[in-house]
Amino acid sequence: MTKADLVTAHTTDIPRHNPCAQCGTPIAQPDWVEPGAGRISYLWTCRACNYRFEAVAIFDPAAAEHPPLAA
User: Fold this and answer.
1) The pLDDT value given to residue 9
2) For residue 37, what are the domain limits?
3) Is residue 68 part of a domain?
């Protein structure tokens, strides 16, 4: 899967305007989105202060709308 595949696969779920963890400036969208088992990781880069950080959303995989097709 390419970066473009990951982003387009989750376009409606991507958080927008997340504040920078260092200076608080809103960031339009993450640079990278990586889904995993029970989690989604987001890589953010602030253009105002050049700070990079990762945010991870953890959820219950059993409650997901579409359970995995394979283990």
Assistant:
1) 45
2) 3-10+21-61
3) no
